[in-house]
Write the structure tokens for this entry.
Amino acid sequence: MTEPTHHEPHGESLGIRLNWLRAAVLGANDGIVSTAGLVVGVAGATSDRAALLTAGLAGLLAGSMSMAAGEYVSVSTQRDSEKAALAVEKRELREEPEAELDELTDLLEERGLTRDLAREAAIQLTERDALRAHARVELGINPDELTSPWQAAGASFLAFTAGALLPLLAMVLPPSSSRLWVTVVSVLVALTFTGWWSARLGAAPARPAMVRNVGGGALAMGVTYAAGSLLGAAGV
């Protein structure tokens, strides 16, 4: 007999961790692309380091705060919906326990158990913790792991900021003669990595994800640089 591998992650906790990690990668990717497009666009109009730093910092702060606020609102709405669903389920368990037991039996039977086994499992789960059983089986919610809007907002803020720092520093630190190419190369390398990692997390082919990521970033920088160059030439 083989020993159980308790060190391996399973269940909803693993899914939650993967979702958080995927969100962090995508947040960093957004920070890279948006800030790179901004500073490269400004670089097309001027080579002044102070102007580039001001634009980059403004983009970083605006983007990170926007990401954090959006994630906070989104996750707060999700959490409110989950809590409302749990409240309804709790009321139904109190008012109609037999109907809820039948419902849980039906749900377990739909998952492949025989009717008798589903009934026995439903009874045991109900006796142990009826609300948790219905939350997991019927609603797909883990009452112990409701999403935290503050954690989501903080993670989005940090991920976007980390991604945005790369193009910002690549633009303002090198000499003016090489800062544009340093920024472009650094950004494309970083986008290659984030594209590969996001595909890995989703168990998808890496090459298409990397090509899309790099292509989108290159297009964003090309368009904003062209716009900045035109505005700079026009003296705007």
